[in-house]
Every structure is written in structure tokens, then in C-alpha cells.
Write a structure and sequence with these properties.
The protein has 896 residues and is α/β, with parallel strands linked by helices. The model is unreliable at 1-23 and 146-151 (pLDDT under 50).
């Protein structure tokens, strides 16, 4: 049996791993093995029932390599860190740092010395942002590896030692094609195998197929099926034995298994998510503005002034137009979101996935364990007329309780359903004999003594088999002969429940009068299962979770469309979906999607809520089609068969109990497999998105307005409108206050529906809101020029100081107007950290010109008569922005 052990063996696991891409699964070998007898299957891989000899095993290990599936591991830490620098905004900042290093350090005037302030300031932003992102993702990606390293699995392998077959535990990585594996309940299949012996063997293949019910495995040759997973004499790596025992021949190992092929399909770079494409669009919008504005500033200042200072000011303008703190603020937002989500039992592996979670408008989910309990329950216990019957449950309890073999999931469900009545149901009986289950008759029986004069045979099995051996039926307390008409009616009851996706079993009894003191020594055989009286029908189902229906309703109220994509059969799927409130009127099978183009499949997915019998490739293709159709798609799954879909989705969501390959493919891991937990994560993702967009829109529009003001001033003034170092100080002060944005409050209407990254509204926001600040900048220019006579080169410092104070206070104060579509401080108030931070920046801007540091960077003290004008300018600016905000919302329909 599988265990976590390190049993020594005569062969040692090679240290090397196979290099290059190993061949895919040999489907022809699987097909030949399916159709072959056990003896012929052994010949297919040149094997013996007594196992391989050590030299044969070593030779095959050298040829095929260890029985390992190559997972995509995280890259080396240095590579992982360098990848964080690929963020477009970080690349822009790195470029600006390089330019400023050349202009301010290498080419600096020897008399003035090198100016490191700008280089150090922006470099620090890049370093802090990239290190924060790297550490969060590095820490999450290593968690699964630490857990996996704790367990080393083994299997019972038979090898010929000195001509004698010896069965012992060996590490799974040493298993090779041709090995003989002994299987027992609880074992995980270590490779793809052909069964050569089976005793009541049932295997759970849910991780590969999505079907909750265990599959009965048998040995006899079978017709080749389209999907090897449907072959009842094959077993596959990653599936587990539920009950019974068996002996299996290893056909394929490692990357050549079905599991290995799925792992290989998700290797390499994953497709760009909605967040990736959205941030690219926003980046290119800002780059296009920079490409127009920066050269214009350079040319205008070069013509009206000198080209050296013009170049310096153009570089500073580029810095001013770039939201320098965006990578840091996005990372802080995401890190704060990840921290909040961890309190709600959600682990974030890829930080950017939080944004995609907030933008998700379609949640595709597997059925088993997500919408259902991932366990089998006795749904109904009926009499032969289809009515609920405690008598049926009582006899079923006797059958399940007294069997001495390992109980399967159906028996456990019966005993669980009996609950407190279990002792009462079985206390008056004593086990006499039993006839175990076998696949030929598809039923099992126990014989119990009710007293010294009566034995009762209690038989449970496939409904059609129970009907075949029954001549009577129990109606109330009366035993009636089964007529052809009644048989048809009972078959209709069974068919009705099968159509609801339930597994229906029949239950029958037979009284056997006995006499004499040795009645308990009577032995029974399958030939005694005759002339039975059918008691009733048992139906089993993997029931929906109690939390699923309200969670789905809540997700729908937040604008998320839930679609089920499962490998389970359509009947079971339809029943579960109906009970949780998903429209299962039109179920599309996975094979029906193969002939469709992505566009056709996207259109089909828009009007379809449920896909059933979908294999891993079909699941991933459905996800891809919905993304091509413009939807932001999340996928929730935990099985091997879910890995490609998890990889393809904008945000892959799994659970901590999922298989390793699913957790590796996922971006977010739920510690509780519940849609309610996921809903909390979605709302946190939207809050993170809104606070990030606040910074982008506020900063981009404000910087654009400032740069527009610079263009006007550059064309009209005989001196630079603002000192380059002062521009950096202003931007840094403002950006530092924005670091509190991750903790800002978010209006409820801003997270009511999915949020997507888009550049169109950003451009509109910049063009409509940004120039408003320029209007008041220009009035400040006029104020300083005409009222305070700062209209010559000698008075440039006074002009620059006046504009600096108005600009930094208006830029910071306006945050409170732009962060919400409501009236600030009255209908919507910012968080305390943001209020404190913006207040400190405004205070800093007011006093800087009066300090020694302000004088050192070129500012001068302002006359007190300036400040009434400043108050009037700022008050008017706030009123105008509030009016413009209402007009913008009426026209565009949204704000942030």
C-alpha cells in the first residue's frame, strides 16, 4: 500500500532527471492493453506475472528514467526578481533613472557637483516596489514545495529476487513499465496500469474525470473506447483505490502517463491575463502622451531659452508625467489585499491575480467538491412503489453493517444515514454468512440470524440484478408476487432516479427457515440468491453544498456569471445544478465543442451555463473562447483534469486539498473549498482595483494638467516656470501621500460590479479633468506676473515659489474630490491615513518656501498678501471640479 516511507531497496533512485521533452502517452499501447487478455497485456511490455528481475528493472529505469512527472517549478530567486522588473512602468522609471544619471551625475557641472537626488529618489521607488512584489510571490510559491517535500510515497511492487517473486514497498520514482503493482484500499495508483487481477476493486477517478462516483474495475478484455479513461480495465496515475484489491501491470510511467501529459500541457509561459493586457493599454496611453508632450516641451524651451536647460526640463517633465509610484502603490495595494484575503482563508500566489479577481465577470467552476459536498450520501430510501420507506433503510443498514469486507462509499453512506438508529436496526441480528460482491452478478449478500429458527438473506446490488432474482415484492406488510407490469413500474422508478443523476441500487430479502442446534453452521452460496422479495430502492448522490445556492445568488448580484464545466455525466450535473439554482436546461457536452471555432464557442458559451463530460483540453478551450470573447474568466478546480483550465483562465483558483499540479497551476488557493470564501476574495480584489485606479486616474490627470501648464508657461515666460529639482520634490511629496491609498475607503457602488482595466476612460479622464488644473495654474501665472510683478528673470524665484505652493496644494487637495463621485467629506470621507497624509503634504508645501531647505533648492518666501488669493483660487477650483465631475459621470456613466 502507499505510504510515506523510505524502505531500502536493491536499486537506488537515479539522481538525474530525463533531459528534453519525453514522448507523449502511447495511446496505441493503452488501446492494445484494453483489448488484450491479462496474459497478452504482459507480452505487450515484455513482463511476467512474477515481476521483473533487478537487472531488468535497472535497465528499464536507465531507458525510461524515474517515474516522475516534471512540474513547472518556480525559477531561481534572482530570475524571479528580475521578472518583477518587466513591469512597463518600472521599465519607464529605469529608463528615466539612466537618463538622469547621465545628465545629473556624469555630465554634471564640475562646479556644482553631481546631483544624486533624482537618481536616488526614483531608484528607491523601483527597488522598494520590485522587492515587495518579489518577496510576496517568492514566499507563496515556496509554500507548496515545502509541503510536498515532507512526503515520499511508495507502492507494493513484485520483483523476482533469485527467481522468487518478492513483494515489497519501493519508492514510486523507481517504478518502471513492466512492474507488477499490488493495490489495496487507500492506495494511490503510481502509474498508468492494466488490471490483471481485481477483487471488488473500485477506483476514484474524480481528479482525472470529475465523476464523483467510484469506478468498478475489472480484468476481462474490453472493446476499445474513444477515451482511454473510460476503459474499466485500465488505471491511471493519480487516481486512488476506494475499496477492494487488485494486481496491476505498469504500462507507462512519468511524463508518458495521462497525468504526465496534462502536466506537460501547462508548461511554459501562461497567456496574458486581463490585468496584463489592461496595464499594457494604460502604459501605452501614457507613453503616447509623453511622446507628444516631452518633445514639445524640449523644443519650445530650447527655442525660447537654452537647449541644455531645455533638455533637463524635458527629462523632468517626463518624470512629472509618469506616475512614478504606480508600481509601488500597485504592489502595496496588492500586498494589502493579499493580507486581507489571507484572513478570509485565501492565499494569493500571484499578486496581480487579485486585480483579475476583482475584474472577473465569469466564474467557471468544476462541480465535484465545489458545488457539491464531494462525498456520497444516501439521498432516498424507497419502497417498490417509490415512496420513502424506513423498512428499506433498516434492511440496507443490516446489509452494510454485517459485511466483513471493506465497506465502500455506498455502504458508508447507508450507515451514516442510519445514524442513531443503527444499533436498533442491527441489534437483533447475528451474522451467519455472506456472499461478497463480484462484477459478474453485481450484487452482494449477508445472511443473518433473527432467531434460532430463521435466517434472512439480505441482498443489495444493481437494480436490474435484484429484479432478476426477485419473485416477490414487499407492499406494506404484505408479500406480493412480482408481475411483469409491476416489474416495468419498478424499472420506471429506477429510470426516473437515474435520469436525476442518482445511482440506484435494489434491495431484496429472503427468509430461510432453519432448525436444530447446528443451524448457525450452515454455509450459503450465490445459488441461494433466488426467489427473493424485493424490499425497495436506494438512491445515492454527491449532494450540493448548503452554502452553494446563496453563494451563487450573491455572486450573481455582484455581476458574476457562474458556469459549470465538469467531466461528470450530464444527468448528475443537471440534478446538482438545478438544486443550486443554475439553469441546466441546455447542457452542452465537451465533444460537441470540438468542431467549433473559438468565436463560435464563445457565442455558445454566452448562452450556455453548463458543460458536461468535458475533458481537460475541452475545459481549457472553453475558457480560452470566453476570454477571446472579451470576458474576464476565473476558473475554480482541484483535480488533475482542471490544470489546463486553471492555467488558461485570467485567474486560476484552487484549494489547499487539491492535487499538486492543480495548486501549481493556480494563482489563488482557498483554504476552505467554499464559494462564500471566494466571494470575499472577489470583493477585496475590487477594492484593490478601485484604489489602484484612483491613483492612476488622479495622478495621470493631475500630471497631465501640470505638463499642459508647463507647455503654456514655457511658450510665454522668459525663464523656466519651475525648477527641475522642485518638480521632483513636488512629485515625491504627492506620491508619498498616495502610499496611504491602499487603506482608503471605497464607495459601495464602486465595487458592485466587475472592474476592468481600460485605457479609453483613462484618456477621457485625463483630457476632461486634467486641463481644469491648468486653468487655475494659468490664473496663478497671471497673479504672479501682474499682481506680484514676478515678470523678469530676477523675479523668477518668486514666480516659481508661488506656482509651487498653488500646484502642490491643489494637486494634493483635489485627491479628496477625485477619489469619489460623491461630495467629499460630506457623502464620502477618505480614510484617516489618507486625510493625515494629504494634510501633511499641504502643510509641507506651505512652509517649504520659508525654510532653509526651500532656499537651497531655489524657492523664496512669499508675501502674506499671496495667501488670500491662494484660498480663493483653491476654493474656486474645488467648485469647478465638483461640477465637472457631475458632468463627466452623466456623460461617461462611471467615475473611477
Amino acid at each position: 500500500m502507499n505510504s510515506a516511507t523510505s524502505t531500502p531497496t536493491e536499486t537506488t533512485t537515479p539522481k538525474r532527471k530525463p533531459s528534453g521533452r519525453l514522448p507523449a502517452a502511447d495511446t496505441q499501447l493503452l488501446e492494445r492493453a484494453t483489448a488484450a487478455t491479462p496474459e497478452a497485456a504482459l507480452d505487450l511490455v515484455d513482463a511476467s506475472r512474477y515481476g521483473l528481475t533487478p537487472p531488468e528493472a535497472r535497465a528499464r529505469l536507465d531507458r525510461w528514467g524515474p517515474n516522475l512527472v516534471r512540474h513547472q517549478r518556480p525559477p531561481a530567486p534572482i530570475v524571479q526578481y528580475l521578472r518583477t522588473l518587466r513591469n512597463p512602468f518600472i521599465l519607464i522609471l529605469i529608463g528615466l533613472v539612466a537618463i538622469m544619471f547621465v545628465t545629473d551625475v556624469l555630465l554634471a557641472d564640475p562646479e556644482e557637483g553631481a546631483d544624486w537626488i533624482g537618481v536616488i529618489t526614483i531608484g528607491t521607488m523601483v527597488l522598494v516596489s520590485s522587492v515587495m512584489r518579489f518577496w510576496q510571490e517568492f514566499r507563496s510559491s515556496r509554500a507548496a514545495d515545502r509541503l510536498a517535500a515532507l512526503v515520499r510515497t511508495t507502492s507494493a511492487i513484485t520483483r523476482q529476487i533469485d527467481g522468487v517473486p518478492v513483494t515489497g514497498e519501493r519508492p514510486n520514482e523507481e517504478i518502471v513499465p513492466g512492474d507488477i503493482v499490488e493495490l489495496a484500499a487507500g492506495d494511490m495508483l503510481p502509474a498508468d496500469v492494466r488490471l490483471i487481477r481485481s477483487t471488488d476493486l473500485q477506483v476514484n477517478q474524480a481528479m482525472l474525470t470529475g465523476e464523483a462516483m467510484p469506478v468498478e474495475k475489472r480484468v476481462i478484455p474490453l472493446a476499445v473506447t474513444k477515451d482511454p479513461l473510460e476503459a474499466e480495465n485500465l488505471g491511471f496515475m493519480g487516481t486512488s483505490v476506494v475499496s477492494g484489491s487488485g494486481t496491476a501491470l505498469v504500462l507507462q510511467t512519468g511524463d508518458r502517463t495521462a497525468f504526465g501529459n496534462l502536466a506537460a500541457s501547462i508548461q511554459g509561459a501562461r497567456p496574458l491575463t486581463a490585468f496584463d493586457t489592461g496595464i499594457q493599454k494604460v502604459t501605452w496611453t501614457l507613453i503616447r502622451f509623453m511622446a507628444v508632450v516631452v518633445p514639445a516641451v524640449f523644443i519650445i524651451n530650447g527655442i525660447t531659452k537654452d537647449w541644455g536647460s531645455a533638455f533637463m526640463f524635458a527629462v523632468v517633465t517626463a518624470v512629472g508625467l509618469t506616475p512614478e509610484m504606480l508600481p509601488l502603490i500597485v504592489t502595496a495595494n496588492l500586498a494589502k489585499g493579499a493580507q486581507m484575503m489571507s484572513r478570509s482563508c485565501v492565499i494569493v500566489k500571484r499578486l496581480a491575480a487579485i486585480q483579475d479577481l476583482g475584474g472577473m465577470d465569469v466564474l467557471a467552476t468544476d462541480k465535484t467538491g465545489t458545488l457539491t459536498e464531494d462525498r456520497i450520501v444516501l439521498e432516498r430510501h424507497l419502497d417498490t412503489a417509490g415512496h420513502s420507506s424506513d423498512r428499506t433503510l433498516g434492511w440496507a443498514t443490516v446489509n452494510a453493517h454485517f459485511q466483513t469486507g471493506l465497506r465502500n462509499l455506498l455502504d458508508e453512506a447507508v450507515l451514516t444515514s442510519a445514524g442513531d438508529d443503527l444499533d436498533r436496526a442491527v441489534s437483533r441480528f447475528e451474522l451467519i454468512d455472506e456472499m461478497p460482491f463480484d462484477f459478474a452478478r453485481r450484487r452482494m449478500s449477508v445472511v443473518v440470524a433473527e432467531d434460532e429458527h430463521l435466517h434472512v438473506i439480505v441482498t443489495k446490488g444493481a437494480a436490474e440484478e435484484i429484479l432478476r432474482i426477485s419473485e416477490w415484492e414487499m407492499v406494506g406488510l404484505e408479500q406480493r408476487r412480482l408481475t411483469a407490469a409491476r416489474r416495468a413500474e419498478i424499472e420506471a422508478v429506477v429510470a426516473e432516479h437515474n435520469a436525476l443523476g442518482m445511482r440506484a441500487l435494489g434491495l431484496a430479502i429472503r427468509d430461510v427457515p432453519v432448525a436444530g442446534p447446528r443451524s448457525r453452521d450452515i454455509e450459503y452460496a450465490v445459488e441461494d440468491e433466488v426467489q427473493m422479495t424485493m424490499v425497495g430502492i436506494l438512491t445515492f448522490l454527491d449532494p450540493p453544498k448548503a452554502s452553494a445556492k446563496p453563494a451563487l445568488r450573491s455572486l450573481a448580484s455582484h455581476g458574476i456569471d457562474v458556469k459549470v464545466i465538469t467531466g461528470d455525466n450530464p444527468l448528475v450535473t443537471a440534478t446538482v445544478c438545478r438544486e443550486v439554482g443554475i439553469d441546466a436546461t441546455n447542457i452542452v457536452l465537451g465533444e460537441d465543442t470540438d468542431a467549433l471555432s473559438l468565436k463560435e464557442l464563445a457565442e455558445l458559451a454566452e448562452r450556455t451555463q453548463v458543460f458536461a463530460k468535458a475533458n481537460p483540453a475541452q475545459k481549457a478551450r472553453i475558457i480560452e473562447a470566453m476570454r477571446e470573447g472579451g470576458r474576464t474568466v476565473g476558473y475554480l478546480g482541484d483535480g488533475i483534469n482542471d490544470a489546463p483550465a486553471l492555467r488558461t483562465a485570467d485567474v486560476g483558483i484552487s484549494v489547499d486539498t487539491a492535487v499538486d499540479i492543480a495548486k501549481e497551476s493556480a494563482d489563488i488557493i482557498l483554504l476552505d473549498k467554499d464559494l462564500t470564501v471566494l466571494e470575499n476574495g472577489v470583493m477585496e480584489g475590487r477594492r484593490t482595483f478601485v484604489n489602484t485606479m484612483k491613483y492612476i486616474k488622479m495622478t495621470a490627470s493631475s500630471n497631465f494638467g501640470n505638463v499642459f501648464s508647463v507647455l503654456v508657461a514655457s511658450a510665454l515666460l522668459p525663464f523656466l516656470p519651475m525648477i527641475p529639482i522642485v518638480v521632483l520634490i513636488q512629485n515625491l511629496s504627492y506620491d508619498l501621500s498616495m502610499l496611504t491609498l491602499p487603506w482608503d475607503r471605497v464607495d459601495n457602488e464602486q465595487i458592485r460590479s466587475p472592474r476592468k482595466w481600460e485605457s479609453k476612460t483613462l484618456a477621457q479622464f485625463m483630457l476632461r479633468i486634467g486641463p481644469l488644473s491648468s486653468i487655475f495654474d494659468i490664473t496663478t501665472f497671471a497673479l504672479m506676473w501682474f499682481v506680484f510683478a514676478a515678470n523678469s528673470t530676477d523675479q523668477a524665484a518668486l514666480f516659481q515659489s508661488g506656482w509651487f505652493v498653488e500646484s502642490i496644494i491643489s494637486q494634493t487637495l483635489i485627491v479628496h474630490l477625485l477619489r469619489t463621485r460623491k461630495i467629499p467629506f460630506i457623502q464620502s470621507r477618505a480614510s484617516a491615513p489618507l486625510i493625515i497624509a494629504t494634510s501633511l503634504v499641504c502643510l509641507f508645501g506651505l512652509i517649504l518656501p520659508f525654510t532653509g531647505f526651500g532656499a537651497a533648492v531655489g524657492l523664496v518666501a512669499l508675501p502674506w498678501s499671496y495667501f488670500p488669493w491662494l484660498i480663493g483660487t483653491l476654493a474656486t477650483y474645488c467648485v469647478v471640479v465638483q461640477l465637472a465631475k457631475r458632468a463627466y459621470v452623466r456623460r461617461v456613466g462611471s467615475w473611477i
